[in-house]
């Protein structure tokens, strides 16, 4: 309860002081993309780097009033946080991280990516696919491929009328990734250094190490992305070998 109160306090102070003013990721990106999809336009014409299933998800609620649509994104993020933490007690502990308030205010999808990484590292391949369709790196955390293949097949089937968008998505990724600053300034750690660290962590073959590798492999690693460092910690707490049972 203390952690939740801390996050709420940061949100209240942030909004009152104007720190969270202006557009967020929903009003600046998600709403526009959803409207384009519903109007029959190709959202990848404006450089979208989210996958086609995510673009269709935007279209499913962008027609709602802005406040309600933003609530959809917020509830999705809260659900993702609960999945990462494994319990509401864990959610309260993570709420002590100040970056969480910024995540909720900005309307980003970092927690969805984090949930994908956590699930994949704990042996749920489908979660890695869901997170990977948002920001790629959860794919490298996948250790269970049966449900991953099912999730991938579902993603492909629901986008059959828009198969060409997959090609456009890959093209936009190839254009954006070398630039490395999609969405704003990034943490100044050279990509080769991150790649070496990722390879070393994957070689450990431990759930927490795989999760950490996927976190630092996020293509555009912004300062807000540092929030995802709570994911390997949560995975470590939830590892069966540590807790003497099945993952939570």
Walkthrough of the structure:
With 248 residues, this protein is mainly α. It has one domain. It has 14 helices and no strands. The longest helix has 20 residues, at 66-85. The chain starts with a helix and ends in a 5-residue tail after the last helix. The relative contact order is 0.12.
Brief sketch in words of this structure:
The chain has helices at 2-16, 25-38, 52-61, 66-85, 88-94, 99-106, 110-121, 125-135, 146-158, 164-179, 191-204, 207-216, 230-238, 240-243.
Mean pLDDT across all amino acids:
86
Dominant shape: globular
Count of domain modules: 1
Alpha plus pi helix count: 14
Please estimate the helix content. 55-70%
Give a quick account of the main beta sheet: strands, pairing sense, barrel closure.
none
Give the class from helix and strand content and strand pairing: mainly alpha
Low-confidence stretches: none
- Can you write the helix and strand succession as a string? HHHHHHHHHHHHHH
End-to-end Cα distance, whole Å, is 21 Å
Cα-based radius of gyration, to the nearest Å: 18 Å
Beta fraction:
under 5%
Number of strands: 0
């Amino acid at each position: 309860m203390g952690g939740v109160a801390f996050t709420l306090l940061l949100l209240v102070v942030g909004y009152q002081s104007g720190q969270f003013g202006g557009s967020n990721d929903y009003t600046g990106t998600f709403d526009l993309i959803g409207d384009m999809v519903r109007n029959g336009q190709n959202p990848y014409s404006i450089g979208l780097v989210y996958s086609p299933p995510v673009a269709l998800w935007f279209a499913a609620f962008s027609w709602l009033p802005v406040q309600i649509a933003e609530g959809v994104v917020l509830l999705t993020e809260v659900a993702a946080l609960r999945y990462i933490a494994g319990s509401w007690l864990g959610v309260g502990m993570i709420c002590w991280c100040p970056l969480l308030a910024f995540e909720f205010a900005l309307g980003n999808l970092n927690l969805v990516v984090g949930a994908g990484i956590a699930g994949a590292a704990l042996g749920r391949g489908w979660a890695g696919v869901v997170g990977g369709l948002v920001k790629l790196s959860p794919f490298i955390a996948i250790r269970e491929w049966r449900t991953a293949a099912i999730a991938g097949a579902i993603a492909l089937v629901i986008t059959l009328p828009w198969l060409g968008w997959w090609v456009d998505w890959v093209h936009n990724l190839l254009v954006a990734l070398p630039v490395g600053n999609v969405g704003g300034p990034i943490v100044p750690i050279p990509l080769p250094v991150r790649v070496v660290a990722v390879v070393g962590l994957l070689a450990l073959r431990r759930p927490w190490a795989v999760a950490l590798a996927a976190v630092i492999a996020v293509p555009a690693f912004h300062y807000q992305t540092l929030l995802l460092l709570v994911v390997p910690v949560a995975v470590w707490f939830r590892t069966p070998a540590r807790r003497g049972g099945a993952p939570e």
